[in-house]
TrEMBL record:
Protein name, UniProt field: Serine hydrolase FLP
Organism listed in the record: Staphylococcus lugdunensis
Lineage per the UniProt record: Bacteria, Bacillati, Bacillota, Bacilli, Bacillales
Keyword Transmembrane on entry: yes
Chief localisation class: membrane
Beta-lactamase-related domain: residues covered: 46-362
Amino acid sequence: MKKKIFAFLGGTILVVTILTIAMIINHHINQKKTETMLSKSSQHYIDKIITSEMDSGHIPGLSVLIMKDNKVYLNKGYGYANTSTKVKATPKTRYEIASNTKAFTGYAILQLENEGKLHLSDKVSKYVPGFYMKYKDKRIDDITINQLIAQTSGIPGDITDNDTITSKNDSLSGIVDSIKGRELNNKPGDQFEYSNMNYDILGLIVQKVSGQSYSSYLENQIFSPLNMHQTYVKGDTEKKGSTAQGYEIKHGKAVKDNPKYNVGDGPAAYMVSSTKDLESWMSRQLNPTQATQSLVQSSHKPKVKTADDNKAPSYATGWFVDDSEANTIVYHPGTLENFSSYILLNKKKNYGIVVLANAYSDKTPDIAEDLNSQILNNKNYTTIENAINQSSLVSYVIITLSLFITIAIAFYMLRRIINIYHGTFVIHVQWKLLGYFLIIMAVFISLMTAIYLLPDLVMGNTNWDFIMVWLPLHAKLALWSVMLTILCATITLVTMLFSKKKR
């Protein structure tokens, strides 16, 4: 009778434990993980800033990335990637990043220059035969690559606004060919005028010089080396993953919008990416390797003032630059009819912010600026790493206690094994012990599962892979020592259970 009770009890405990753990882990795995180093109070404050601006701008969904000192401080989705299907925005949600594509196109040009395949002083007509424009009815065929980069070519910002998209101009070569011979607003090199066409032409030059399509070059030379495996240029083959639905805000409501676009505008405005993929791009911008340092510095170097005002920002290579004695802010907004983005870098203080939204809204740059203000002024912005470092004494106490307990348990277990070897103790396996064994294993699995789920329980929706990147060494040692103690204790209990003194 006792055997049946133990078997039933043990079996029930084991089944319930396994089912409970399976449900918890399944829920844990299926959740879209957030990466955050922020303390709960800071996270709550940052969340409040973001959601307040989202509500004010009627933005359905967005994703935010904050990096500092080459660490991800926050990577989190807010709202919905698609309001119809109720798919939530996450760090892996992809958005059309609009004009933030220009920094990639500019970087590609600088790569080709670094390889000696072109010079920034080269005329566009060298790579696009027959290309010319007009200024005051005079033929102009000496526009240079550098003028395209600096947005000083004189090409009007609205040069294709009234054009109808046709099969003839719906390509990179087609859109560039369609503007040949049109009138410039300014003499090349004289004045800054922001125009997407400048970067479309640069994209065509990348294509001509590299012998690859623009999208293939970016994939092979930028995306793949940076492990940006979910990023692509719109119009190219879409990669697997979740892409946000774009929305237009009408009368305070988000309305699904899929406007027509010209594939030829890809190098200026139609890259598709996520805050997760952009982590490596931001890391490249803020902490370049020795091999890429000169390229990154060149891309951030101001080329021209955007207005006749000392306080006006400069334009670099696909970036605006606001330089002051205290801080150098490198940034770029991005707007489409149904998406918006904002990327900001503080080079001197080594941090960056990315905001990607699935609606056109002036609140997108506001969110980035609000977050920038929080970091810059160090207000309501504390991290768990700092809190853990401040309580390092607790970690050392845990390590010391765990070490003593583990040594004591190991010594006891070793004695028992030696006794079994010498025959003073014997292995003793009985059915009535099964219930106890299952209880021990259930406790062990439950404790290890609790440790596995600790990031969720303490910090919210995050994971160990992310946490182990920034977790201080003393905290890692404390964690490993506790796990080792639990493992040794479990093995010892099982050894004690199935061995007894020989009579």
